[in-house]
Amino acid sequence: MAEHNPMVEQLDADMHLEAGEEAHVDQTALGFDTTGWVAWAMIVVILIMIWKKVPQAIGSALDKRIAAIRGEIDEAAKLRAEAEALKAEYEAKTANAGEEAKAILARAQEEAAEIVEQAEKDADALIERRGKLAEDKIAAAERSAVAEVRAKAASAATAAAAALIEAKHDAAADKGLIDSTISGLDARLN
Predict the structure, then answer these.
(1) Which spans are transmembrane here (predicted)?
(2) Model pTM?
(3) N or C: which end of the chain has fewer CB within 10 A?
(4) Predicted confidence (pLDDT) per residue in 67-112, tens digit
(5) Which helix (H) or strand (E) holds 19?
(6) Number of Cβ atoms within 10 Å of the Cβ of 86
């Protein structure tokens, strides 16, 4: 801030007049032109801000912001570490997934073989039971047929014998037969 000397201002005004320019003189108050007054006003404003602790408030606000940003950076670093751990875990699981799939497939094939083997055993047992049941039915049918044939044969023999007896025996022959039977009974009873 240079103070203005009235002589310098007059000299400056004379130089401008010689150059053909209009004379322009800045107004001064207490020896300061407008630039000087603006400079003094800025100094006063800065001193008031320092007195009211504005720089400290700005500094503390900046410190808080810096702390918040550091906290966010720390949190981001922690999240990144967690993400990398999860990624490593899933990569390990993915690597093991092929082996697990093979093991599951092997177990499934073993179980399928056991199921097929059991089904074959069950089918064989069922076939055997049905065969035995069929044999039992056939044997029962044979026994029934034999009994029926015997019954028909006995019936036919009885009918034939009755016809023969009727044809060959008369009442006198029956009387002789009855008498001989009765006498045989007497001998047996005594």
Answers:
(1) 34-51
(2) 0.32
(3) C
(4) 999 999 999 999 999 999 999 998 888 888 888 888 899 999 999 9
(5) none
(6) 10
